[in-house]
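At this stage, I put together a protein sequence along with its fold in token form, as given directly below:
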Amino acid sequence: MIPSTLPATFTAQQARVAGLSKHALHRLRESGELELLGRGIYRRRGAELADLELLELATRSPRVTLCLTSALVKHELSDAIPAAFDLALPRGARAPTSQVRVHWHWFEAASFELGREQLALDAQTSIGLYSAERSIVDAFRMRGREGHELANEALKRWLRRRGAQPSVLLELAERLPRSRTPLRRALEVLL
């Protein structure tokens, strides 16, 4: 039986702390009470529906943050279907090992938390998600790598939203390198 102190998604180390041995975990997997999400990451069968790939990554590294195209899609500012998740970590952090397809991005530690929110994946687990505004500014500052179209389309969609304030974008762009000038030019064209 799975201890009630364990969340729906947990690591093998958390299971050991809760009193489950390696053999008990194996028996619970064999009986169908647990599902293996990735090496050392387990999920209770029958737990609420969630994105299992993001759950695995968030469990492995709580600092992981959806960024760029993946964040823009979550904010409904892009129709792109990325082949891999765009995920950010602070510069110097190690990317967790996983079978999930990921494009890793390392951002300066000083700016990593700017516009970072939490996206609930289930009742106990969440993953970092950059705000719509931060994601647009990042798309402009990384336009050489991500393409101009991604940034421009996201900005157009964001401006159509009720209450969209370009000054918020410009203030954020002041704090992130290489984004102010291209963002200002795009706003001048669109407004």
User: Anything to note?
Assistant: The first strand starts at residue 9 and ends at 11. The chain has ten helices and eight strands.
